[in-house]
């Protein structure tokens, strides 16, 4: 299977899950560490528009801002760094993620907006959790005034402002849920 090339200036849905659906995050500290590593390795190479970390999988919505080889290597370094630390902490060895991370190139703005909503609603889809209060998705980072690595202004601009962003997250959104059934 040939992997999608990460083209500069293009938007992508990046996601993966634990091998055999095992947990890739055992606790909130793992999730916080994952986000720090993401920032360390990729903040200068991609713009992050949305993310959600669930116990056995993650979603990222990004725009590539550097050359493909640099971004691909940065993702590799990021995942390797996280897996090594996770394995050491949990006294395990071997692969943590299913094969290579999945990547889907987004081809239009409507799809991009639907995907951002889908990613932020992930806690609700899987565990009927209140997505508004979920700590490990980008929803709070977008609606708050706190400092963030998320491209808040770009996301709010896509939705025409914070009111419409919140409104769209409170609408029924089954289109993408049907597309991503692996979790």
UniProtKB/TrEMBL annotation:
Biological process according to GO: DNA transposition
Domain named Transposase IS200-like: residues: 7-122
SUPFAM superfamilies for the chain: Transposase IS200-like
Highest taxon of the lineage: Bacteria
GO molecular function: DNA binding; transposase activity
Name under which the protein is recorded: Transposase
Biological classification of the source: Bacteria, Pseudomonadati, Bacteroidota, Flavobacteriia, Flavobacteriales
């Amino acid at each position: 299977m040939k992997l999608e090339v990460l083209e500069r200036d293009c938007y992508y849905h990046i996601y993966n899950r634990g091998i055999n659906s095992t947990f890739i995050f055992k606790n909130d500290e793992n999730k916080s560490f994952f986000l720090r590593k993401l920032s360390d390795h990729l903040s200068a190479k991609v713009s992050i528009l949305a993310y959600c970390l669930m116990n056995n999988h993650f979603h990222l919505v990004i725009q590539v801002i550097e050359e493909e080889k640099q971004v691909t290597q940065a993702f590799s370094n990021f995942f390797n760094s996280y897996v090594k630390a996770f394995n050491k902490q949990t006294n395990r060895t071997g692969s943590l993620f299913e094969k290579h991370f999945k990547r889907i190139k987004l081809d239009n703005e409507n799809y991009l907006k639907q995907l951002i909503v889908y990613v932020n609603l992930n806690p609700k889809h899987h565990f009927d959790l209140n997505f508004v209060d979920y700590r490990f998705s980008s929803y709070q980072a977008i609606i708050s005034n706190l400092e963030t690595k998320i491209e808040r202004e770009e996301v709010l601009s896509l939705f025409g402002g914070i009111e419409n962003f919140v409104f769209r997250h409170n609408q029924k959104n089954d289109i993408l849920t049907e597309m991503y059934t692996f979790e």
